[in-house]
Amino acid sequence: MADAVIEFQHVSKIYKRLFSEEKIAALSDVSFEALPGQVCAFLGPNGAGKTTSISILMGFFFANSGQVRVFGYPPGDIRAKEQIGFLPENFAFHKFLTAPKLLRFHLQLAGRDPAHAGSLIAELLAKVKLNGYEKLKIGKYSRGMVQRLGIAQALLCNPQLVVLDEPTSGLDPAGRREVLQLLSQLKAEGKTIFLSSHILPEVEQIADYAIIINRGKLVRSGRLQDLLAGGSQVEILADRAPAEPLPAAIVEPGPHGVRILVEAARKRETVESLWAAGCDVIAMNPLRSTLEELFLKEVDPGGGAS
Amino acid sequence: MKIRAIALNTFSGLVRNKIIILFCAGCICILLLMLTSLLGIRAVRARQNAEQMQMMVLPLIAGMMTFISGFGSLLAAWSAADSVAAEMRSGTVLAVLARPVHRWQFLLGKFLGVQLMMFVFVLIMLGLNYLLAWIGGATISTNPWVLVVYPMVRYMVYSALGTLLVTVMHPIIAFCVVLVVMIGSGLVAPGNPQTFMPDWLRTGLFYILPSSNLLSETRFLTITRATLKAAVWTDHATALLYGLDYALVCLVLAAWIFHSRSLSRD
User: Fold this and answer.
1) Which residues of chain B have a CB within 8 Å of the CB of A88?
2) Rounded to a whole number, what is the distance in Å from the CA of B169 to chain A's nearest CA?
3) Which pTM was predicted?
């Protein structure tokens, strides 16, 4: 197996209030890893510890215990940071700069000569649909434009690992789709993407691996395919429901007929019953839960009931 | 290159900073008020003899120069504190330090950006000194390098102090502490006749607080035709090295504290 790009081993982080004994455990014994080329979705409700984990990963916060390695280096190490592109949550910027000047500034921070970077900057701005706004000060940008600029700066130095904290926040549906396409492109280029987001249907489209944390604790992690294929039920779509009730099946009305859920062992029997009743079977698929269903099951098993 | 980029970016931010612009506008208003008196005295000089004229004009010019110079110390401290705090407040520090930049490089870049702004301030101050002397009918006999290097070193001390304090406290509190330090260093200066402080405290504070008097260019500023205060090069070297050393200690301490503090949007 390839060396992990990100390794979290038994990481704990406790926040202490100044002049107070009060302690808040933001992370408790969290362990996970992200492999090269993987799109890793880092999920959790608000206050779960996602931003704290990302801050530890980037070297902004220090863990109280446990070990964190990024490309084999401790977080915050220059050698690791050279390979990372980072988009913080609610990306902030120097408002008096224009987008090309900001990108030039970030190139200088990365130790690169910005003198010959004109075409690279133009290409990146076109990629995030900000071409045509080169002369506008960033302070006058809309929230969505700032977010797209943040993505451009994260991709600036061709990073091997892209860490994105809520990359689609503030974007309209078209902007979200563009970001998703951009991430798919990065995935195809073999980049490792560590992504935190609340928009689960979108994450589900591109993620290979999911890590779910809640109240600072790791609740589930694994390949998305494995996590979502846990059910043993089959979904049958038919044009109408038979007059006689089907044994051990759940029948729900659908837009073009009915949706019937049965255990995999009873699928043949159910289909034969439908045919016998003169119904037409449109499709039959193994039931796959969605990431949203899995997420809600893990972080809110009671369904929000108090 | 990284430090230079941060320094230039800091300078660009500072010259657009509304608080600093307001600060400078206030200073200019006070200066204009003081200038009114100076011009008034100049207007009636035909009716005064040269000695009376000097007695009236010179303290006024010296007062204005001390005011501008002291204002510079506060400006240096505030700019240094605010330039770091503003990055923390807005969260831009996260994007900057996500790049392969050491925390000390970030802090040093910020410090140098402030020095760049203070250098522009010192050049304006130098021009103003000559202008005021000319309006007052006097000439400045001091070597110009003294009027540039001394205030620069003093501003380095106060901006390093501002940088150190802002790594552990809010910039407004840091600024207030610098103000107290400035007043305190003036009180414990050897030439000050104040008596309310016991000797041991006065001596202790003299060693701890940055000596603004020692680093004051006005020690050497001679705007009369009287004898120039002679100072050998070793005096200059000792005084300036004292200031640079003080600034360096503050900066190293700031870098050490900043290295181990958590960075988040405040």
Assistant:
1) 91, 94-95, 98
2) 12
3) 0.82
